[in-house]
């Protein structure tokens, strides 16, 4: 294989990686707990927090804080899983690049 063909292949791989990363960044992920639902972009920017206020009593603020934490962490984990699934083929055993 000549150097020019290798460069074209590397450029195609780079373009494929950027396309996959853009798809992940634009996708919306959702995390849920019993009282809270959180939506976040693949960039881990939180776009929505919904609280089931009907199920909430005044004394439940501490529990609500915990539920928000659970929902945010679940959505974040989903972003990481999809990023690893889609981008892992490019990094081949070098986690943490994306």
Characterization of this structure:
By secondary structure, the chain is α+β, with helices and mostly antiparallel strands. It has a single domain (3-89), classed as Ybab, Chain: A. It has helices spanning 3-26, 61-91, and strands spanning 28-32, 36-41, 46-51. The chain has a 3-stranded antiparallel sheet with strand order 1-2-3. Strand 2 (36-41) and strand 3 (46-51) form a beta hairpin. It is rod-shaped, with a radius of gyration of 19 Å.
* Topology-level CATH name: Ybab, Chain: A
**β-strand amount:** 15-25%
Helix and strand composition category:
alpha+beta
Give the SSE string: HEEEH
- For the largest beta sheet, what order do the strands appear in spatially? 1-2-3
The CATH H-level superfamily is Nucleoid-associated protein YbaB-like domain
Categorize the overall geometry: rod-shaped
Q: Share of helix among residues?
A: 55-70%
Note the main sheet: 3 strands, antiparallel
Please summarize what this structure is.
The chain is α+β, with helices and mostly antiparallel strands and 98 residues long. It has a single domain (3-89), classed as 2-Layer Sandwich (Ybab, Chain: A), CATH 3.30.1310. It has helices spanning 3-26, 61-91, and strands at residues 28-32, 36-41, 46-51.
């Amino acid at each position: 294989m000549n150097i020019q063909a290798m460069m074209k292949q590397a450029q195609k791989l780079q373009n494929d990686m950027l396309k996959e990363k853009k798809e992940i960044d634009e996708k919306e992920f959702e995390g849920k707990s019993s009282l809270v639902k959180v939506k976040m972009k693949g960039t881990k920017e939180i776009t929505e927090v919904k609280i089931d206020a009907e199920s909430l009593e005044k004394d439940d603020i501490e529990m609500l804080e915990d539920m928000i934490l659970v929902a945010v962490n679940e959505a974040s984990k989903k972003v990481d899983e999809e990023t690893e699934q889609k981008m892992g083929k490019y990094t081949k055993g070098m986690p943490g690049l994306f």
